[in-house]
Amino acid sequence: MGNYYDILGVGKDASEADLKKAYRNMVRELHPDVNKSADAESRFKTVGTAWEVLKDKEKRKLYDRFGEKWEEAVAAHKQGVSYDDFERYSQGGRGRTSYTRGPGSTYTHGGQEVDPEDLNDILRGLFGQQGGGGGQEKNYGSYGSFSGGRRQQAETEPQVHDLPVTLRELQEGGERQISVQSYEQSGNTMRPVTKQLKVQIPLGMTNGSVIRLGGKGALQDELRIRLVVSPDPTFSVQGHDLKTTVPISFTEAALGAKVPVQMLSGSVQLTIPPGSQNGRVLRLRGKGLKKRRSGAGDLLVRLEIAVPESLSTREKELLEELQQISTFNPREKTFQRAGVTV
Question: Which of 59, 217, 274, 334 sees the fewest Cβ atoms within 10 Å?
Answer without folding.
Answer: 334
